[in-house]
Amino acid sequence: MSHNWKNILVSPDIHVQEVLQVLNKEAMQLVLVVDENDKLLGTVTDGDVRRALINNIALSAPVRDIMFTTPTTATASTTKKSLLALMQNKGINSIPILSADKVVGVETLHHAMMKNRHENPVFIMAGGFGTRLRPLTDNCPKPMLHIGDKPILETVILSFINSGFINFYISTHFMPEQIQAHFGDGSKWGINIHYVHEDSPLGTGGALGLLPKNMPNLPIIMMNGDVLTKVNFERLLEFHNDNAAHATMCVREYDYQVPYGVINGEGNKIISMVEKPTQRFFVNAGIYVVSQALARSVPVNHIIDMPTLLELHIAKQKDVLMFPIHEYWLDIGRMDDFNRAQADIHSLGMNE
């Protein structure tokens, strides 16, 4: 198959039959109908041809009779990131690039994602009940609640796609049909999505036992499906690989101010006093990278959460590291978190 975009330029007068030949020969699954100066007149896809045949349009008819005259286009100055977002939002696999209405190129979803392509599996936990967000979650799984104009889970997946990840596994339990109906096999976004279903809740660690045992020997990025973040997933994976870690946990710094004066003493003698001191801790951010060996160590249908699982491997002298994140992070567990996410999403540029 050819990938030269000039091979998909056709005259508005050629027959539908000839367009079919171009579609079958070329890899872009698109034909651009142009005039003698390469000005874009319309586009034709395999779907357009199928609809034409259903409507009894003859294969000998000119392509102008079936072309789509208002396609989505972009200019030569549009950034690759913007092109990728546009194709994902429109659910299209390619987009003509124009300069003064003249075709100067074609960008494809596949090409836009190739630069930083990562084969590592991304495992997203999406099976929780979301009880603290009732009544919103009475008839909707929490990851499918909309933040801005998209489900939380879609925003999470788009963040990974924008970093070049293409292989996804989603664990489901509560109302899985809503998640599967929305995302399907991932082809709309140019990715691969597989599902593992928990018949009963297994915990974040237990869900690992449902993954295929014959996956490529690449670290798995795990994430709770209700976390909104701008963490750099590529940098996280690089840190894990550079340190040959068995597992890596993302952590956030959490400050807690004691509301009282704290007294330090020896026996009944006061040694020092600190008024309302601030204590600083690292807390679990719900994002992990784990080795295939760790994943395979979890038996099928074994109930365990990730902190407990990691503690077991720490006890075995395995290298479990922490990756502090400073980027935006929000665990959407309560109603005030949900409302905050609605206010934050557009300023973060994550819902475009």
UniProtKB/TrEMBL annotation:
* Keyword terms: CBS domain
SMART domains to which the protein is assigned, alphabetical: CBS (SM00116)
Report the domain of life of the source organism: Bacteria
Domain spans labelled CBS: 1-59, 67-122
> What are the TM regions of this chain, as residue ranges?
none
The protein depicted here goes by the name CBS domain-containing protein
Q: What is the lineage of its organism?
A: Bacteria, Pseudomonadati, Pseudomonadota, Gammaproteobacteria, Alteromonadales
